[in-house]
Design brief:
With 172 residues, this protein is of the alpha+beta class. It has a single domain, classed as NADH Oxidase (3-Layer(aba) Sandwich). Helices cover 35% and strands 15% of the residues. Helix 2 packs antiparallel against helix 5.
């Protein structure tokens, strides 16, 4: 898909077909987009946890109580590795959140390109999710997204409400 069409057609999907898992080859294409994302000093301070097994899906889906989320055949958890991320010497800024956000954006756009629905979620219960995944203190969850094909009959709303450029851009 042409890039501008891709970013204009991408929407947050909140309706998944639980009976239609995404083939491994398609999931790997989507995950590879995250792998190819840029990061500060190319440190790649991330892990992508793809949950597809029934047992782990049941645990992970408890962290976000929405019926549509429970229907997704896969859930991706983007984890940043604090000790690997680049630190700016001037003020100690750690690039982990920026790096993982870029990778997650690549993943979500790649999903759209493959016809797979995604929805970046931040309103999950982080304590419950950390316990379900048995993460250590260095691993920080920055976002989750269901991955799956939209349910039969799902219609995208392509009317995006965005501020005009003259409200958000300053030419200096």
């Amino acid at each position: 898909m042409e890039y501008n069409d891709l970013i204009r057609s991408r929407v947050s999907v909140r309706s998944y077909d639980p009976e239609r898992p995404v083939p491994k080859e398609v999931l790997e294409k989507i995950l590879d987009a995250g792998r190819m994302a840029p990061s500060a000093c190319n440190y790649q301070p991330w892990k992508f946890l793809l949950i597809s097994s029934t047992g782990m899906l049941l645990k992970v889906k408890e962290c976000y109580q929405r019926d549509w989320f429970r229907d997704a055949p896969h859930v991706l958890v983007s984890v940043g590795l604090r000790n690997i991320a680049w630190n700016r010497s001037y003020d100690g800024y750690n690039s982990i959140e920026t790096d993982v956000a870029i990778a997650m954006t690549h993943i979500i756009l790649a999903a759209e390109n493959e016809g797979v629905g995604a929805c970046w979620i931040a309103a999950y219960n982080p304590i419950m999710l950390r316990e379900a995944l048995n993460l250590d203190g260095n691993q920080i969850i920055y976002g989750i997204t269901p991955l799956g094909y939209p349910r039969q009959g799902y219609r995208k709303s392509l009317s995006k409400k965005r501020k005009p450029l003259d409200e958000i851009v300053e030419y200096l």
